[in-house]
Amino acid sequence: MRSLLVILLSLCFVSAAQAALKTEPVRYEADGVSLHGYLAYDSRIKGKRPGVLVVHEWWGHNAYARKRAEMLAAMGYTALAVDMYGDGKQADHPEDAKKFMQAVASQMPVARARFEAAMNLLQAHRTVNPDRIAAIGYCFGGAVVLNMARLGLPLKGVLSYHGSLASPIQAEPGRIHARVAVFTGADDPMIPGEQIDAFNAEMRRAGVTHSVTVYAGVKHSFTNPDADDYGRRFNMPLAYDAAADRDSWAQTATFLKELFPARR
Prior knowledge:
Blueprint: H1 2-20, E1 21-30, E2 33-42, E3 49-55, H2 63-74, E4 78-81, H3 94-105, H4 108-124, E5 128-138, H5 140-150, E6 157-161, E7 179-185, H6 193-206, E8 210-215, H7 227-234, H8 242-259
Parallel strand pairs: 3-4, 3-5, 5-6, 6-7, 7-8
Antiparallel strand pairs: 1-2, 2-4
């Protein structure tokens, strides 16, 4: 009887947690292009809270980006997984992913317009304090959030995971308003050591509060559990690393808590 009671209570707690997590697909536009996002928040929290934008890998707005939005919602934020490609496009092959990515990355005004459209939607949500916005990004998305900070968008913080650190846009003193955190792998050929060194020098010159965590023996896309499969299928230097994933997410939780201290 006692065991049955424990099971029933556990199921109740799980059901309550699931009921508290609200998720919904959202549509918005930038320059006439339809963008498909995914919003997540905890309905039990009263009042407005910080909002966090989640920018996808070069594969496009997929289940992984949405999962990260849900994880942020469980931490007490309202999160929006954005769509940088339009129409919710996703790639199944690196050649398509590269085309989708380059079409946006090569046109910074397009990237900015799509990012700002998502940010405006998040800021306008009834659960969000519009003055407390951060952004996180993976791979392609990591480069996007760093560039949005370089452009001076009103973000309080940005976090990049295995994202390119090189950019035609250079940080200038006084332009970046965000605190910056970067997580990368020492064995990631897409982000070599000299790129990391150049990024650190760029941030120091601009007077940006930043940190860079480099994980020894870790390859590209280390936060994504599907990285091993992608690496095998397409012969790419990708690999999931559970320890680096856990550590980077723990640091993310601390970063956001420090960035957005609870208001009394």
